[in-house]
Design goal:
Elements: H1 3-27, H2 34-52, H3 61-81, H4 87-111, H5 117-145, H6 158-179, H7 184-201, H8 209-231, H9 234-257, H10 262-268, H11 289-297, E1 301-306, H12 308-313, H13 316-328, E2 332-337, H14 347-355, E3 362-364, H15 365-368, E4 377-381, H16 390-393, E5 412-417, E6 437-441, H17 444-456
Helix pairs in contact: 1-2, 1-9, 4-5, 4-8, 5-6, 5-7, 5-8, 6-7, 8-9, 11-17, 13-17
Bound molecules: NADP nicotinamide-adenine-dinucleotide phosphate.
NADP nicotinamide-adenine-dinucleotide phosphate is lined by residues 210, 254, 258, 307-309, 312-313, 340-345, 347, 382-386, 416-425, 443-444.
Length: 458
């Protein structure tokens, strides 16, 4: 095949890969089509990887095959094994690898000492900087979430140190671009960027880590896009831009749903220094599964609110079995999902989809909130912060201003949890002390099983 044909095949394949990325992402916007979307985007990525082998002048095929084989096997095995609740740290790790790969591409370009011209020089350096920050920052985020390093390191002058590192990187970057330097300056540049990623992330509390991971995801996308320009590689430009844009939007959405501004996440150290909020008074009133079974079986409308505890208990299958029994009895039953219920965006939707819950009875917070007033029962399974009314009423609470599900407006509220454990934010939940609230203590899966028996026995 001549060179022209080969270039045409490469260009067409990249175009197809780009179309697959964009359509895949579009399909991921709905749980109904999300699985298919991931497959489409995966095929696009596979195509973009294979076509790399056709590049004119490409060498080191064996090394490429070994790297792809190693990476593929590790990703396949870890992806199969990871628990749903460990997904955020897995994403942090993969994302860090993406940033590291972009930084490595920049390093190869910069160490070569080639004159890239001003624009490409700036892009290479920017991509290298952002990629390196994302790499080391994501690794710290992974370590924190995995529990390797739970302590949050803060010291006086931390922000000044970060600023000094940023400015030093900038100065070295300018020297690299203007002097086309390779060698030591490039090494110093990457050292500074990597250290900045670490020092930026260590002071951030565990509570804000998912937002930070999402931000680094956006960084990685941006870094890949910049390096794509340097390499003149359309697949990298498009994939990087798509990831950068999606990551930025997700970061914004998560920060909003958790009621944090991005500046607050990055510079305030939430999670370690949270306020306690006002003390909640009153008592929690227990109930048993038989009574809850009767209450739900004879209700007109029941809204189910799943939370992190349902994921821990892996109760989704039993919850769906219970739902089906109630539907058969004519109960109008819907699932109410808060945008940050669980530990990652879409966590509850994924679990419910896995259990086979049809999408048309799953509602987002803004769609369902007006229905709580007409609900006979709000059944809360392992959710806590996302139904805490202090977010509306107590300005001193760390979650004040966070949008919540209006479970407290329901005629009866039943809360399934194991004991007195707090939610992610670590604060008391005023909902548990209301007159219409009853506590059904136990592991989510066991309690759902008891409720099934209770409804069946009626
Ligand atoms: P949550 O506030 O973390 O509360 C979970 C509750 O589940 C706990 O109070 C716990 O009480 C209970 N639980 C734990 N294991 C259980 C089991 N086996 N069976 C039954 N209950 C169990 O959960 P949430 O209401 O879903 O709120 C999510 C929180 O995570 C929010 O604060 C959100 O901002 C934060 N967050 C979310 C994301 C995201 O993207 N989704 C990311 C980062 C942070 P017991 O110990 O008494 O059982």
């Amino acid at each position: 095949m001549n060179m022209l044909n080969m270039t045409l095949i490469i260009d067409l394949s990249y175009f197809l890969a780009a179309v697959l990325f964009i359509f895949g992402l579009k399909r991921m916007s709905s749980p109904v089509t999300a699985r298919g979307g991931i497959v489409w985007a995966g095929v696009g990525m596979g195509l973009a990887t294979i076509v790399t082998f056709l590049f004119p002048g490409m060498t080191n095929y064996l090394l490429m095959v070994i790297a792809i084989g190693l990476g593929g096997v590790i990703a396949w095995v870890s992806g199969k094994k990871v628990a749903m609740t460990d997904m955020p740290q897995m994403i942090a790790l993969y994302n860090g690898m993406g940033g590291g790969a972009a930084a490595a591409i920049a390093a190869v370009e910069l160490f070569s000492g080639k004159d890239h011209g001003l624009t490409f020089g700036i892009l290479a350096v920017l991509g290298g900087f952002i990629g390196a920050v994302s790499f080391s920052g994501s690794l710290v985020a992974f370590a924190k979430l995995q529990g390797f390093k739970n302590t949050t390191l803060r010291f006086k002058g931390q922000q000044m140190l970060n600023l000094a590192l940023l400015l030093s990187s900038l100065v070295v970057a300018v020297m690299i671009i203007t002097q086309h330097s390779s060698g030591n300056l490039v090494s110093i540049f990457f050292m500074l960027s990597l250290v900045l990623g670490v020092t930026m992330t260590v002071p951030i509390g565990g509570a804000d880590m998912p937002v930070v991971i999402s931000l680094y995801n956006a960084f990685t996308g941006l870094a890949v896009a910049f390096e794509g320009f340097v390499q003149q590689n359309p697949a990298m430009i498009i994939a990087g831009t798509v990831v950068g844009a999606a990551g930025s939007l997700l970061t914004q959405l998560m920060a909003k749903a958790m009621n944090r501004s991005l500046a607050h996440v990055l510079f305030s150290g939430f999670g370690e220094t949270i306020a306690e909020g006002q003390e909640v008074t009153g008592s929690m009133k227990p109930i048993d599964a038989t009574d809850v079974g009767v209450m739900m079986a004879f209700a007109n409308k029941v809204l189910i609110i799943p939370g992190y505890g349902m994921a821990v208990a892996q109760a989704q299958h039993k919850v769906w079995e219970l739902t089906q029994l109630l539907i058969e009895r004519g109960v109008d039953i819907k699932f109410a999902i808060h945008p940050v219920a669980g530990r990652m965006p879409g966590h509850m939707n994924v679990l419910l989809a896995e259990a086979g819950v049809p999408y048309d009875i799953i509602y987002d917070e803004n769609e369902i909130n007006s229905e709580f007033e007409s609900a006979d029962v709000a059944l809360i399974i392992g959710a806590n912060d996302v139904v805490n009314p202090v977010a509306r009423t107590d300005p001193s609470s760390p979650i004040y201003g966070m949008p919540i599900l209006n479970a407290d407006y329901a005629k009866n509220v039943v809360v399934v949890k194991r004991g007195q454990g707090a939610g992610f934010s670590g604060i008391e939940n005023a909902l548990f002390f209301l007159d219409q609230t009853r506590m059904l203590y136990g592991d989510g899966q066991e309690v759902a099983g008891e409720l099934i028996q209770a409804v069946k026995s009626l």
